[in-house]
Amino acid sequence: MEKRLASYDPANGELIGYVPVSDTQKIGDVVKQAHAALGNWIKPGVDERVKVIQRAYSNLESRMNELATLLAREMGKDIGRATGEVNGTVYGGPYIAEEAAAALKTIDAGGGTKIEYRPLGVAAVISPWNYPLAMANNLIVPALVAGNTVVFKPSEETPLIAQKFVEHLNEILPENVLQIVHGDEEQGRALVENNVNIIAFTGSQAVGKDIMQRASGQLKRLVMELGGNDSMIVLDDANIESAARFAVGSSFENAGQMCTSTERIYVDERIADAFEKRVTEIAAMYQVGPWDMPGVNIGPIINSTQHEKVVEHIRDAETKGARVLLGGSQQPERFINPTVIADVNKDMLMEKEETFGPVVAMSRFTDIEEAVDRANNSTYGLGAVVFGSREAEAVADQMEAGMVGINQGVGGGNAPWVGAKQSGFGFHGSRDGHRQFAQVRVVSR
């Protein structure tokens, strides 16, 4: 009997549907099919591949409402955010394809030498549940443009939206250029250990380290984004209203289930009272509920394990002396109400680990060097934010993160999505990020 992977609505536990679990013994056959499809996919050249990819994404346009509803129900984010993710995916795919094509053009290096960007082979793309289309899209498109074929393993939490996405793209894409396998870590490991040439992964540090070990025997190429425990420093001359709105919005976005959510906030004690008050007022305006409830902007936590982790972090802070300004450890099943915690210290789980829930965690500082030291005291280094005026640039320069925002969030423009320390291995996005999906070849005549 075929094993099936069930998908449930995180807001109420209702069964949404099933996909077949991929047999680990047959994942090798999937990879072989991907290798066999390489020749016909590479042959037309990068410009023709872009045209095919753009037609495939145009084919998604009539399915956007269907995809947004399924995404909202399966992941739990409200319909507005789900629609935004679908729109960004469908309309962003062709743009990423053009950007990647420009990055992969042959370059004249002078002296009769050219730099070419050739396909690596088969790309394994392993993506997370919190942005199941957007994160996959950012890896799949440049891999395909570079001439690789792709075997896509989505999170077991959001298999249905991934399946629909691939099915609709494959109405246009050539056979076996993009394939999908379903399951949990067992299927992920089988894919990593198979004859793939590059592994593009977004997820946790622990899984990233496991992938590195399994890929090391054949020195497979890796592009990995491994989460964050992002910090925010609020200086004494910061605009309190702007800083408070950012702090809450970033901490609560996607119910706090975002790799660049603000997890730790260090605020100058001279403005701390006013900042904490305004943060609490703004946080109290947020409404919790299922994806289809009007006015909802905080959805459910993805599963019971993650829900228990968020509650544990709040309870740990309470027992170690934190002040609870809103919410607390008494939480409903499946959801976390907006929670604001002050006086977080170095011994608390919130300081050391990624909470990944709708919690604003704040500390006061008197010495900016202390704040910078605490902000940098993490194995993570994805994003960091500084709000202030006089010293903001100087403080931002000391932050150990791949992306730093000054009086705004991180990222933007055509910049890469990049982490420092153990938040990243390689990076994606931008000209240089797209080139990581290709083999550089120098030809001199």
Key traits:
single chain, 445 residues, alpha/beta, 7-stranded mixed sheet, 15 helices, 40% helix
List the helices and strands and how they pair.
Layout: E1 4-8, E2 15-20, H1 27-42, H2 46-58, H3 64-75, H4 79-103, E3 107-110, E4 113-119, E5 122-126, H5 134-145, E6 149-153, H6 159-169, E7 178-180, H7 185-193, E8 198-202, H8 205-215, E9 221-225, E10 230-234, H9 240-252, E11 262-268, H10 269-283, H11 304-319, E12 323-326, E13 339-342, H12 349-352, E14 359-365, H13 368-376, E15 383-387, H14 392-397, E16 403-406, E17 424-425, H15 430-434, E18 438-444
Parallel strand pairs: 5-6, 5-8, 6-7, 8-9, 10-11, 10-15, 11-14, 13-14, 15-16
Antiparallel strand pairs: 1-2, 3-4, 4-18, 9-17, 12-13
Helix pairs in contact: 2-4, 3-4, 3-6, 4-5, 9-10
Would you kindly provide a brief summary of this structure?
The chain has 445 residues and is of the alpha/beta class.
What does this structure look like?
The chain is an alpha/beta fold. It has 15 helices and 18 strands. The protein has helices at residues 27-42, 46-58, 64-75, 79-103, 134-145, 159-169, 185-193, 205-215, 240-252, 269-283, 304-319, 349-352, 368-376, 392-397, 430-434, and strands at residues 4-8, 15-20, 107-110, 113-119, 122-126, 149-153, 178-180, 198-202, 221-225, 230-234, 262-268, 323-326, 339-342, 359-365, 383-387, 403-406, 424-425, 438-444. The strands form 4 sheets. The protein has a 7-stranded mixed sheet with strand order 12-13-14-11-10-15-16, with helices on both faces. Strands 7-6-5-8-9-17 form a 6-stranded mixed sheet, with helices on both faces. It is globular, with a radius of gyration of 22 Å.
